[in-house]
Write a structure and sequence with these properties.
Number of helices: 3
Strand content: 25-35%
Radius of gyration: 13 Å
Strand order of the largest sheet: 1-5-4-3-2
Structural class: alpha+beta
Helix content: 25-40%
Largest sheet: 5 strands, mixed
Shape: globular
Order of helices and strands: HEHHEEEE
Length: 108
């Protein structure tokens, strides 16, 4: 498991999280509830890890909403800090862009 995911899980489950402005727009666009994103982090699976991202470590994960539908979420930790966990973006992965399990990007 990614260190970034481990930290984001602990923070989010302790209520120490926020949603970025971009994240709120994407959640609304794909009809995803913040509560589903936070609850789903407990069983998140890493797709891509970005430990050296310039704004702070981040990780793209696969989660599910309350109905078991897939959600991709980018969780981040601010650079130079250790709290809060940030929902950078979240979206429903498009089947034409991802493998059947939504864990691998399809090649163009």
């Amino acid at each position: 498991m990614s260190d970034t995911l481990r930290v984001a899980q602990a923070l989010a489950l302790a209520g120490e999280y926020r949603v970025s402005r971009h994240g709120f727009r994407e959640l609304a666009a794909d009809d995803i509830l913040v509560n589903d994103v936070v609850a789903g982090i407990a069983s998140a699976v890493v797709i891509e890890d970005y430990p050296d991202a310039h704004k702070g470590p981040s990780v793209l994960v696969m989660q599910q909403d309350r109905d078991g539908r897939p959600i991709h979420v980018v969780w981040g930790i601010p650079s130079g800090g250790n709290t809060p966990a940030v929902v950078v973006t979240a979206y429903r992965p498009a089947p034409e862009l991802w493998s059947a399990d939504f864990m691998t990007r399809k090649q163009p």
